[in-house]
């Protein structure tokens, strides 16, 4: 996804979020949110990382850069399969236009398993935080490249008020320095360059030491093998977000178990 792609996505997101917000029944959303008790996204990752590998398995049907990834996408059975295969948490895409996701997918995935779920979307308004909990999310994603410092803080505070964890995603050191004082439960380093699409684990490897020591450290993008996980775990990552390589397989449990079992066997 290029920076131009990101700008287009954000412009569209602000329009559709404003429309949803205007037509929403806030009282109904608040009642739905109150019925969901967040399950501790960051704490689940830490528990899984103590004696094994904490993988955030991503449910993603398509992307702007890769097109259709999984035509036969069905959130509930995918969630059940990935949880049974050992995922510590799930990440569920809810952007409709660019990733073919939905809040329905989030709600279905969350209901189908007991592990915490991240709402993966372009968060630009506190209304989306309420939506997230109302649709059974346990955490939200904040993308530093997409938000001003003020927007990051406002959304982080909204998440805290809703008892949702935050995974704050950065792509480079400049972004990292902007978010260090946000006190998020988890920080992710995405090894994909937004301008060139190039993915290099060198990015995640070099930045880990600068991440807050009291937060869960998540490596994102470019993770395909147990060796990739071992390399990143060695420099201090607690958890690993893996999506496309799972979603492209007929049974995503097979590649997930392959990522997990060799490392667990060594322990």
Automatic annotation (TrEMBL):
InterPro entries: Aldolase_TIM, Indole-3-glycerol_P_synth, Indole-3-glycerol_P_synth_dom, Indole-3-GlycerolPSynthase_CS, RibuloseP-bd_barrel. Residues 6-258 form the Indole-3-glycerol phosphate synthase domain. It is an enzyme of class 4 (lyase). Its EC number is 4.1.1.48. PROSITE patterns: IGPS. Keywords: Amino-acid biosynthesis, Aromatic amino acid biosynthesis, Decarboxylase, Lyase, Tryptophan biosynthesis. Belongs to the TrpC family. NCBIfam families: PRK00278.2-4. This is Indole-3-glycerol phosphate synthase.
